[in-house]
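Suppose you are handed a protein chain with no further information: no name, no annotation, nothing but its sequence. What can you learn? This example shows the usual starting point.
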Amino acid sequence: MITNLLTLILAMFVAAPVVYLLGKSMGKSVSWLVFVVFLGVTIVLGLGFPEVTTGTIVEEYAWAPAPINLTFGLLADGLSVPMLFTYIFVFAGATMFSMPYMERRLKMDDMEESNEAYARYYALFLLYGASVGGCMLATNTLQFFMFFEMMLIFSWLLVFLYGYGDRKRNSMTYFIYTHIGGGVFMLGIIGAFWSVGSFEIADLVHIVDYPNAFWVGLAITIGLLFKIGAFGFHGWMPVTYSESPAPLSAVLGATSVMLSTYSMARLLPYFQGVLEPVSHIFMVWALVTILYAGVMALAQKDTKKLVAYLSMSQMNYCVLGVFTYVAFGVLGSISYSISHGLAIGLLFLVSGALLYRTDSRDMTEMGGLAERLPIVILASLAGFLTIGGVPPAVGFKSKFILLSGAMVRGFNSGTTELIVAILAGSLATLLTLGYEFRAVWKIFYGKLPKKLEDVKAVPMEMALPLIALGALAIIFGIWPKLITDPIEVFIEHLFHH
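A reasonable first move is to predict its three-dimensional structure. Written in structure tokens, the prediction is:
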């Protein structure tokens, strides 16, 4: 049962300086405190599912007086709770996975292991998760943007301080791209305020009555397309994902798809009247991104770059679903973002486990690891089945609903939308299954290289997150109503009120 949303968010923010101070004396052991905080938030959100299936929870606190009359508001409903529950669950798993992984990362030649390094990492990790939580519960666009910028800063610091290779260059690429997107998004927020005279998201209900509504909606859309890595705006994504530590890559991937889809589902339906006439352009854009990134994934030898392009490809299904402006399409987009967030977090952790045990990210140097790493291959299969939309994983129903919405839009609108739906459901799906099964074969089957004959199972702190994320993907697949029931309440309100 959710009793106080502000306390839930503050618990993560307040715990961060405590983690930093304790970490300076405890070192890596402070990771357990971060794990407990994330797990506690996950449990509270999970217990709140019944509440948001029947209603909403709103909290408002005075923030800025007249003439702005701005409140600091938090909203838990059928959209925010299932998404935030899954997101923080990924953070909890990534935190536990970090325990052995970051110990090894900090012992590499380009890093210096110290209590200070552990303290910074886990405090920033907690602040990153808390910031996204603030975004997903915000009731006004200014508050949303504040948390959005905080999330970008904390994630940038993690990439800069703990990434591989040329950390300065990679982190700056991430910073520039995401802040250009954030700046365009902010222009949309300001434009909306000039029109309706309010930052409250609920007040956007009349935005289409104003002459600049199209440009406001376009600015918000473009800003979010930077974050989700649409083709042309994706320059930051492959290098940031592949050159970040695996636990950070896991939560970066989950953030991109889940926060972007959440934002589109929360904000863009208000602009349906002005954006629907050009929505087929965004559907085509999404399909181009899906196919381009899919081909790039098929060409990869590097396990992390494979997952990076895979993520870029699949998360744009969510863009496709939202811009159908059909109930099934939006429902499928939201539920697929949840399944993708789980799966992409899982697959980045799998790539980290492979690196941890083989000292390589090159699939051509692997093979025959199925017997040596049984938990890793099971986690890989759970992640790939979810991404590929294969039962019993949760990706099956969510992608089926999404593509059903795309087909409905195609039959009701025109040839372009129908072709997009058919290609997304056929060619793109075959491409997805192609690079997935290619990766499984190269890594886990065939002849075991001589240098990998002594490979041992991954540590328990790595195995448990792999098991937990894989199990949740299957549980949601077998009982999809656990997440779709509250989302359907949101969709019903969205399209029929």
